[in-house]
Amino acid sequence: MSFLELERSLGYKFRNSNLLELALTHRSNGSPHNERLEFLGDSVLNFAITIFLFEKYSDVDEGGLSRLRASLVQQNSLATIASELNLSRYLKLGEGELKSGGCNRPSILADCLEAIFGAIFKDSSFNEVKIVIEKQFVKLLNNLDLKTMCKDAKSLLQELLQSRKISLPRYLIVNINGAAHNQRFEIECVISELNIKTKSVGDTRRAAEQSAAKMAIDIITSSNSNYLDFNLYNYKSIKA
Amino acid sequence: MSFLELERSLGYKFRNSNLLELALTHRSNGSPHNERLEFLGDSVLNFAITIFLFEKYSDVDEGGLSRLRASLVQQNSLATIASELNLSRYLKLGEGELKSGGCNRPSILADCLEAIFGAIFKDSSFNEVKIVIEKQFVKLLNNLDLKTMCKDAKSLLQELLQSRKISLPRYLIVNINGAAHNQRFEIECVISELNIKTKSVGDTRRAAEQSAAKMAIDIITSSNSNYLDFNLYNYKSIKA
After folding, report:
1. Which residue in A36, A96, A195 is closest to B182 by CB distance?
2. Which CATH class, in words, describes the domain spanning A4-149?
3. Which pLDDT tens digit goes with each residue over B83-95?
4. Res A33 pLDDT > 60
5. Backbone angles phi, psi at B125, to 5 degrees
6. Beta-carbon count within 10 A of B11 CB
7. Region B4-145: CATH code
8. Degrees (nearest 5) of the Cα angle B235, B229, A154?
9. A66 reaches B (C-beta below 8 A)
10. Within chain A, which residue ranges are assigned CATH 3.30.160.20?
């Protein structure tokens, strides 16, 4: 198969086209497959996007930067770029995956795109793959919703719950320790309807509330994320 | 304060020592602080370790590589390196943190070390910071327990449970879909004692079991991890 068109869309010509072929080979096709390249490419992508955001948004704090990055490297964004590159035409899948429509499955497309970034890095250098990544992400980078992304955790949690018609969280002071000049606030964030309670400690009430809200967001979004693409019936904290 | 000794231990001399000072400044000390550099440094570190592992362990699969990386970049490993560098002597903390022993808190030390890696990257180049990182991690890199790390998920889960004297998981076939040549197995991994059930789908029974086992490991280890450094009383899957 000729990769001419794909390389043109990527804006990168492989020195060693075996690397590109490997990046396009799903594990269902047998060994060798693209998962090691995906491991590499995931980190390449994360680093390239991190540098871009760090340099461009010098007035956005680390929480905002994290949210911006998460929105860019999530599976849906990657699958969209993969579709624009027509990756499904080039994928090498096993018979089972092929028949069950694997070539259009977002997770397979997203993983394959990461593997391609890994392959380009291995074929050239970080500087070269960074240029390719920025070219592929240019639309997403230009459409970043800074206003939403850079909101603080309490505001975000509130909006998240309102959008699902869930009652707002309550923040309870569980404990205040220390002398007057050195207090530590222990705050609980309670979302009764979802049976979620998170607890955090901070030097100020506000800091502890923000941190507890962030934990609640992490729980809500991760249980909906594709990462946890399964039914989690029960989950109990087990302390070693 | 002179950073001469710290720079000697790091094996790196800053061109702009303000960057090092910023990396050592905790948010409790007010703005500006090290959290943006930490965001950058976390990604720098992840990338440097990823490249190292990818190149060195060419016969280890992506699951093994992920576990190796996780063991290296975890808070405890970072805090150990930070202690060896005597970072607590250089930290700039707010009064509250200082009095409550913040300069020896593992999370503060680990974050600060990441911020230093971010600062070195900004002060020089990825190649230079990669050398610094490999020097600091050399002991950990030489002591990697490949035998444990590269085990498959079912074996790891079994050992994890045995070490805590918890009954072994059961793997139940919940469903088999598709024609004979194209079956999809839906498997549930049940750990009754911990009230954990995970579910996964795969082309083979073995693949689905491995994937369900991995989810169970993620749940068990994340609920013990420092990342979730709080009491999670209840956690329910909420599907959007």
Report:
1. A96
2. mainly alpha
3. 999 999 999 999 9
4. yes
5. -155, 170
6. 12
7. 1.10.1520.10
8. 70
9. yes
10. 153-228
pLDDT at A104: 92
Residues in a beta bridge with B214: none
**Contact with chain B for residue A165, Cβ under 8 A:** no
Most confident range (mean pLDDT) of A55-69, A141-155, A200-214, B129-143 is B129-143
- What pLDDT sits at residue B26? 95
Q: Is residue A186 within 8 Å of residue A201, measured between CB atoms? A: yes
Q: Which two tokens stand for residue A89?
A: 């035409």
Q: pLDDT-based confidence at B223, cuts 50/70/90?
A: low
User: Can you read off the two tokens belonging to residue B184?
Assistant: 């999809």
User: Tens of pLDDT along A101-110?
Assistant: 889 999 999 9
Could you tell me the fold of the domain covering A153-228? Double Stranded RNA Binding Domain (3.30.160)
Inter-chain touch B231–A38, beta carbons under 8 Å: no
Which of A19, A39, A165, A214 best probes binding to B when mutated, by most B CB atoms within 10 angstroms?
A39
Position with higher pLDDT, A28 vs A219 = A28
Whether residue B106 is preceded by a cis peptide bond, meaning omega within 30 degrees of 0, is no
Q: How far apart are CA A134 and CA B217, in angstroms?
A: 35
Question: What pLDDT sits at residue A12?
Answer: 98
Assess whether pLDDT exceeds 80 at residue B145: no
Domain B153-224 classification at class level: alpha beta
**Residues of A in Cβ contact (< 8 Å) with B66:** 39
Chain B partners within 8 Å of A204 (Cβ)? none
Cβ-based contacts of A237 with chain B (< 8 Å)? 223, 228, 231-233, 235
Q: Do the beta carbons of residue B107 and residue B93 sit within 8 Å?
A: no
ipTM: 0.71
- How many contacts (CB atoms, under 8 Å) link A and B? 155
CB proximity A196 to B under 8 Å: yes
Angstroms from A53 CA to nearest CA on chain B: 9
* B41-53: average pLDDT: 98
Higher pLDDT, A149 or B192: B192
**In whole angstroms, what is the distance from residue B162 CA to residue A209 CA?**
38
pLDDT score at A42: 98
